Amino acid sequence: MSEETHPLELIDRERVLRLLSEHLTRAWTSFDHPRPKEPQLQPALYQRLAEDLPEAPGDPEASLADIASVLDASVSPSRPLYAAYIGSTGLEAGVLAGALTHAYDVNLAAAAGAAELLENQTLRWVAEFVGYPIADGAFTSGGMLSNLTALTAAREHALPGARHTGVAGRAAAVYCSEESHHSIARSVEVIGLGSRALRRIGVDGRRRMRVDALSAAIAADRRDGVVPVAVAATAGTTLTGAIDPLAEIADVCAEHGVWLHVDGAYGGPAAGVPSLAGLFTGLDRADSVTIDAHKWLGVQKSCSLVMVSRQGPLERAFAHDERYMPHAGVAANGVDSTLEYSRPVRSLKLWLAFKIYGAATLRRWIELTTVHARILADALAADPGFELVADPGLSVVCFRHLCVGDVDAHNWRLAQAIREDGRVYLAPAVVDGKTCLRVCFMNFRTDAAHIDELLGVIRELGDALRRSGP
Fold it and tell me: Which of 356, 376, 391 delimits the end of a domain?
């Protein structure tokens, strides 16, 4: 190493970029088709992953190869028969944008120049896509933080000054359905209300929040001197894909003067599909909405966003003026509307996806995944060897493989057998006390032939378990 060479400049850029391109091409190609089994790490790599901290420089090419091997042997939602949790699906545009994002390493905590224009444009595009009247918003690391951001703003709206004085013994409540994501409960805890302040409202036969029970709960709290902070409705539950009756909930919130937040982390983008938009009537009346672009908009983690319908609530909840981050004139820093400080340009992945593929392409893909769910549900309903546990909501299907004896135990073993087999990746779930299999279609690479393959694997392994007995 010459005296002019910086001690960290040990990489042959052209060579490493060529190798990186080869690894990316190999990965993308492997995502095009299901694999017969997940690969296993070689013993030598297992040993290297147990080594101590390296003190001396190493070989960049060998290290890249190890990274590729580790990731290839890990569970990836980019594969066509990954049908378990609601996750990203690896749009190639997201990889390109991610590389440039990390290269420039722009920080949106403070005024960042042109990146702020791109971020704001992407927020407007998402709002236009789903039909939401956005006035302000921010990108976050995930649905948990987006929901927390919205409920923090709602708390400050309902209990002005709480960010400075605390709740100070004031009784308050947040309302959600029994099927809401646990991030709502976590958020209620983090904003200082305590989990006992969460009112879990029962669901109807379609697994949606009961509006009559919600109205009664708010009225009862008002009579008891409890301040209703927010109603957190769900637009696409994680368990079954159910969508709360947003318009009716909005009526209740308007009657009682309560903040309406819609957790659309999973299902929100479907509001932009004409054939599905009617399910989301009332979304435009919400005070805040959460959407995870790293789910049904296809880009890689992490890329979530929260939108609010008025200017001001986010600043009232988060803005501050510190000596190490002075405001330039009237310009606000990005940190004044979010909980995070160091914050990358997460929106760039989604911006590039919209630019390359176009909104119409994303709409067709989202709609197709719901068609896949319907196809699978119809096939299961026609097969006496299966029980459809719940009518498919959006792109989620919950069902059971039937047997003589303990059906719950059988389906739990079947879920484990499917994972060990490796051709399909799905997860077990519990619906109405029944242990079942849960399939969620999210991947744009999945086609109708893959549905037959998925069902064939489940039937094959389920029948084998049934023959072998408990």
Answer: 356
Domain, as residue range, for 270:
106-356
CA distances from 191 to 153, 174, 262 (A): 10, 11, 18
Distance of alpha carbon 147 from alpha carbon 264, whole angstroms: 10
Owner of token pair 């409705």: 233
Q: What 3 state SS string does 54-85 have? A: CCCCCCHHHHHHHHHHHHHCCCCCCCCCECCC
> Within a 10 A sphere around the Cβ of 245, how many other Cβ atoms?
20
Domain count, the chain: 2
Q: Are 242 and 206 in contact (CB under 8 A)?
A: yes
C-alpha closest to that of 346 among 194, 145, 119: 119
Dihedral sign of CA atoms 463, 466, 467, 470 in order: positive
* Mean pLDDT, residues 374-395 taken together: 94
- 191 and 329 both lie in a single domain: yes
Q: Are residues 110 and 159 in the same domain?
A: yes
Task: Say what the pLDDT of residue 198 is.
Answer: 97
Residue 54 falls inside a structural domain: no
Phi-psi region at 382: left, alpha or beta (left = phi > 0; alpha = psi -120 to 50): alpha
Is this structure's pTM higher than 0.85? Answer: yes
Verify cis geometry, omega within 30 degrees of 0, for the bond prior to 21: no
Better-scored residue on pLDDT, 31 or 151: 151
State pLDDT tens for residues 131-184: 999 999 999 999 999 999 999 999 999 999 999 999 988 899 999 999 999 999
Amino acid sitting at position 206: R
**Who's near 461: CB < 8 A, 6+ residues apart?**
414, 417, 418, 421
**Can you give the length of the chain in residues?**
470
Q: What is the C-alpha separation between 281 and 94, in angstroms, rounded?
A: 30
Looking at the fold, whether 298 and 330 belong to one and the same domain comes out as: yes
One domain, residues 345 and 416:
no
Task: Kindly state whether residues 350 and 367 are assigned to the same domain.
Answer: no
* Confidence at residue 82, expressed as pLDDT on a 0 to 100 scale: 87
Q: Is 72 domain-assigned?
A: no
* Helical packing angle, 448-468 and 407-421, nearest 10°: 120
CATH code of residue 193: 3.40.640.10
Q: How many helices (H) and strands (E) does the chain have?
A: 15, 11
Q: What is the dihedral of CA 246, 127, 327, 144, to 10 degrees?
A: 50
Q: Is the dihedral of CA 269, 274, 279, 280 positive or negative?
A: positive
Claim to verify: residue 275 and residue 420 sit in the same structural domain: no
Query: Residue 439: which residues within 8 A CB-CB, separation 6 or more?
Result: 83, 373, 376, 396, 397, 398, 399, 426, 454
The single-letter DSSP state of residue 395 is T
Share of the chain above pLDDT 90, in %: 77
